[in-house]
Structure formats: structure tokens, C-alpha cells
Design a protein that fits this description.
Length: 376
């Protein structure tokens, strides 16, 4: 189910819950003003059942607190112009409590409404308002849970696949460019793409968290017995985000070198050819990254070891060689350091990372592997 269809279904469920709550408050509770129940049902239908439960609890808590404050003020001093200001200030402060979330505004609203319409002392009004809110929240939660229960599984899987694929493609473009010829425009494009991936990764992490949350208390999750390694997905997204920092550092170094900065001449072509080979190995590792089979894990480790060896060799050669332009040593050093960090980051995460395959089943089971730090 794509995002537009999910949004349409959620809107229809919110409308259905609102109508059901309205009819319930009119026909069963005999409410003369059936407002609070439908409003509660409308506002608690959310992307996941967990969020619906949380919103229902927040709204009910805010309404109860607001009604109690109004009742206390109305019973103690009554409704006067001089009592409204401090009461509303207190209600607004209470409503800002983070536990109430976006429903905190209900505290001052209920205080004002109760004081102005019932003087804060009408027990029947207070009781009926609280019951309506509770019933509306329950109807909203039940509707969200049993009418096309929200299960956000395919969206985070697709986005995670796209994120890792984007990383591999960028590494391939950089390796080919460094080997066959590159210029300032290429370096700027690589830098912009890496920066965009850094911004995109947290969104993917948010989708993964929404997917994980959508399986809780979900009757569809119970029936289909999904066993998705959400932790593995999250580790993958975090690994990609961290590797993009290093790729961005590589691209930034190349940007400065390509822009004819006098303090940072570009590295030699011989160096860049070897560096491109290291990026090729890392790109191959990314192509197998997060796949749970033993052979895939072994391929990732093998490619990262190969890349690290090339980078170590480049470091030795730079230290021992006499550079044609001594001002170029920061570019050599920066590229080597970022390359090593890139390989090390992938190595640190690849035993825990999980990337769903295009044709594989939704079911994913975490498989742990013994890993020795520094094996690259």
C-alpha cells in the first residue's frame, strides 16, 4: 500500500469513527451537544495503533484535568472577571506539559468552556463530557485497529533498499570518475549527492520506526506472524548515514582540489587510480551489505579487507614518497583517512545490518555473527 493510499484509508477511517461516535453519543448517551465524542474519535485515528492509544490517553487526560480545574475554581470562588485571568494562565501552563502532547490545548479550552457554560460546578456536564471523550477515544482506537489496521512494512523496506542502492551507485560513479577523468563539476555533484543522502537517511530511520511501531497491538501482525528484523533495518540506515559522512568528506576534498585552490593541489593520477580501486571494493561490499546469508557476510568482509589493504598501501607510499608539490599532502591524507573510516564503518555494522531483498519474503530473522574489531 503506497503512502497516498494509506493516507486515503486513514482519512476514511477517521470519518467513519467520527460518525459512529456521534451516533453513539446521541443515541446511547443522550447528549444534548454531541461534540466531545466525535472530536475525540476524529483526532485519535493515526498512522499506528500505538499512536492512537497514546493520543486517546492524552486527550482524555487533558479533558479530565481541564474539567477538574474548572470544577475546583467554580466551587471555591465562582466565575468572576478577576478569577479568570489566573485560572487560564494556570490552565495554559498545565496544557504545555509534554505528556499531553498536541492535546494539551484541551486543558484551557475545557476550563473556559466549563466555567462559561456551567460555572464549573455542573456535575452532570462534567461527567458527560468526560464519558463522551472516553467513548470517542475508544471508538477511534477500535476503528483504527479493526478497520484495515495500519501496517507500514513495505514502505520502509523500499526506502531502505533505495538508500543502500544509492550509496553503491555513488561509490561506483566516484570510482569511475577518478579513474577515467573528473572535474570540478563532478566533484560538486558527488558532494551534493552525499549531502542529500545524509539528509534522507533520518527520514528512512523514521519510516523504519513507524513500521516497527505499526506491528505492535496489530491484529494483522498477529495473524500473519511477521518476524521482521527492525533492529537490523535501523542498523543499516545508521550505517549508511555514517558512511555518507565519509563520502561527503572525500567529495569535499576533491571539490577543494578541483577548484584550483592554491593551498590544496589535486593528488596524482596514479594515486587516484589506486584509490578508485579501493572505492570499487567498498562498492561491491555495499552490494552485499545487509544480506543475511553466510556467503554474503563473507563477501562483505572480504571486499572491505581488500579496500583497507589498498588504503594502507597508499598511506605507506605517501609517507615514503617525495611529492612533486608538498602542498598536496593534506589531500592525500584526507582521502586516505576518509576511505579508512568508510570501510571501518561498514565493517562495524555489517554483522547486524539487514537489507530486505526485492523478491524475498517479508519475514526476516536476525542472525548474529561473531566479529573481531579491527578485522579489516
Amino acid at each position: 500500500m503506497d503512502s497516498r493510499r494509506e493516507t486515503a484509508v486513514m482519512l476514511l477511517k477517521a470519518a467513519l469513527a467520527t460518525v459512529v461516535a456521534w451516533q453513539f453519543t446521541v443515541l446511547v448517551l443522550k447528549s444534548p451537544q454531541p461534540f466531545y465524542g466525535p472530536m475525540a474519535a476524529l483526532l485519535v485515528v493515526d498512522k499506528t495503533i500505538v499512536r492512537s492509544l497514546g493520543a486517546s490517553a492524552q486527550r482524555l487526560g487533558a479533558v479530565v484535568v481541564g474539567m477538574l480545574v474548572a470544577w475546583a475554581v467554580g466551587s471555591a470562588v465562582g466565575v468572576h472577571w478577576w478569577s479568570m485571568l489566573p485560572v487560564l494562565v494556570i490552565a495554559l501552563l498545565i496544557g504545555r506539559w509534554r505528556r499531553f502532547g498536541e492535546h494539551g490545548i484541551q486543558v484551557p479550552v475545557m476550563v473556559l468552556l466549563s466555567l462559561l457554560t456551567a460555572g464549573g460546578t455542573d456535575t452532570h456536564f462534567t461527567y458527560l463530557t468526560i464519558v463522551e471523550t472516553l467513548v470517542g477515544g475508544v471508538i477511534g482506537v477500535v476503528t483504527n485497529a479493526f478497520v484495515a489496521p495500519p501496517l507500514h512494512v513495505r514502505q520502509p523496506r523500499a526506502q531502505l533498499q533505495a538508500l543502500t542502492r544509492r550509496l553503491g551507485e555513488l561509490l561506483g560513479q566516484m570510482a569511475t570518475g577518478l579513474r577515467e577523468g573528473w572535474d570540478a563539476e563532478d566533484a560538486h555533484r558527488w558532494y551534493d549527492e552525499s549531502a542529500e543522502a545524509i539528509r534522507w537517511a533520518p527520514q528512512v530511520q523514521g519510516e523504519i520506526e513507524t513500521g516497527r511501531e505499526s506491528t505492535r497491538f496489530n491484529p494483522r501482525e498477529t495473524l500473519s506472524r511477521l518476524d521482521i528484523d527492525w533492529g537490523g533495518y535501523a542498523d543499516t540506515a545508521e550505517a549508511v548515514r555514517r558512511t555518507q559522512w565519509q563520502i561527503s568528506g572525500v567529495a569535499r576534498t576533491l571539490v577543494d582540489a578541483a577548484d584550483d585552490e592554491p593551498w590544496l593541489p589535486p593528488p596524482s593520477q596514479e594515486f587516484l587510480d589506486s584509490y578508485a580501486a579501493a572505492l570499487d571494493h567498498i562498492g561491491v561490499a555495499v552490494g552485499h551489505f545487509g544480506l543475511v546469508e553466510d556467503s554474503e557476510r563473507a563477501t562483505v568482509r572480504h571486499e572491505l579487507v581488500a579496500a583497507s589493504r589498498i588504503l594502507d598501501d597508499l598511506g605507506d607510499r605517501v609517507r615514503e614518497a617525495r611529492l612533486d608539490d608538498p602542498r598536496a599532502w593534506p589531500a592525500y591524507g584526507a582521502l586516505i583517512v576518509h576511505g579508512k573510516r568508510l570501510a571501518r564503518t561498514l565493517d562495524q555494522h555489517h554483522d547486524r545490518a539487514v537489507v530486505p531483498t526485492d523478491s524475498g519474503p517479508i519475514r526476516q530473522v536476525r542472525r548474529w555473527r561473531t566479529h573481531t574489531p579491527g578485522s579489516t
